[in-house]
Hints:
Helix content of chain A is 26%, strand content 26%. Chain A is α+β, with helices and mostly antiparallel strands. Chain A is globular.
Amino acid sequence: MSITLTTIPHIPMITSGDDLARIIADALATCRLALAPSDILVVAQKIVSKSEGQAIKLSEVTPSPRALELAKITQKDPRLVEIILSESVEVVRARPGVIIVRDRRGWVCANAGVDRSNVYQDDPSGETVLRLPVDPDASAARLREGLRERLGIDMGVIVADSHGRPHRNGTIGVAIGAAGLPALEDLRGCPDLFGYTLQHTQVALADLIASAATLLLGQASEGTPVVIVRGVPHTQRDGSAQELVRPIEMDLFP
Amino acid sequence: MSITLTTIPHIPMITSGDDLARIIADALATCRLALAPSDILVVAQKIVSKSEGQAIKLSEVTPSPRALELAKITQKDPRLVEIILSESVEVVRARPGVIIVRDRRGWVCANAGVDRSNVYQDDPSGETVLRLPVDPDASAARLREGLRERLGIDMGVIVADSHGRPHRNGTIGVAIGAAGLPALEDLRGCPDLFGYTLQHTQVALADLIASAATLLLGQASEGTPVVIVRGVPHTQRDGSAQELVRPIEMDLFP
């Protein structure tokens, strides 16, 4: 058994309004990579956000009193804090240099995923930041549909981001949007090799694939923002990255 | 750019005292897979633990008063709880059905990684459980050295396990032991595509690779417990999975 991950070359710089399905279909045609319905396309969050116009200039933002207060605690730009708050439902940790939130999509992450790096080549000041897609599952579903229309192939699609996490150092890849594959694969009740029923068998399939692809997406991900993953055993269904959101009241970890 | 993950067939059932380096080298010779020094070998924790004699029968265990108390709270077998406690430095959460600990190796995980499933085909009662390797970094280093002696190739080696995690549903692959590659790749200070200095750039390289391999290791991992990963850009150095342990006092997440 084997799995292959391949970057798609010839993806141009993405700007607001770009049709990602058309651009990716063109790039696939150029590199003559034959696709199969069980292939999974992983796309970096940054180009999805850019194509959807989620960049915003700090100079356009007026911080609220709450943002000013939180900026003081965290020593961050109050305008950036205002954007983070507008993307969040709850601030779960605020310390100098750190804001961890539950974001509007349900993800517990730093800065609500708002990113200063790699935004616009014409704004090296760092004054432009990029928010996550409003609904990354919908972004994945649109991309799946657009690729099905153009290529005649129903592939799984994952929108991947890099997250820090509790208890362990370093970022990993996570799925914030998914379509056409199970984000969470539920193997509870399946017997293991010796007939003993498996216990810990909800597998975060879309996160595993996002982490695998992150080995190629890298951190400066605009260079290679799309990866095709071939050979992952999975069932095809609509799927949603929301399957991976654990409600706070269900969280067993400290 | 591409990455390929390949399972190694012909790995027999592993028992205590088995020489994993010899067994894996033999299996590689059988399947005629040519290796390169930049290849990374991912091995499932279970076969490492088995080869190191980390299986233990519950009937051999006498629970301490503390284990009896914790068993009452968590509704678990007091003998299993005794083993979990002996593997841990701190219990961080105990509820019905759940024990989360900081284990002796530094990992915050359920049941100190002690596992009932897939242990012995001759003990379907579930009375035998498997502890983690005593020092998974040392296990990885021994395997690296053994493969270098037999094959003349210095590969990176990762001992992978499946963990749950806070805030997100489903298990992912993590590295609990590593040798011959950076577990944590520190890109802080590197410029991104547009010259803006990256901020979140400590990448958990060994965890990314462990998650990728977990797509093939599966949950009933004794069937395909070894995966070769080819094409991951990385620098070669001794490395240690301990790079991924975040001390509690440094933990910024709730």
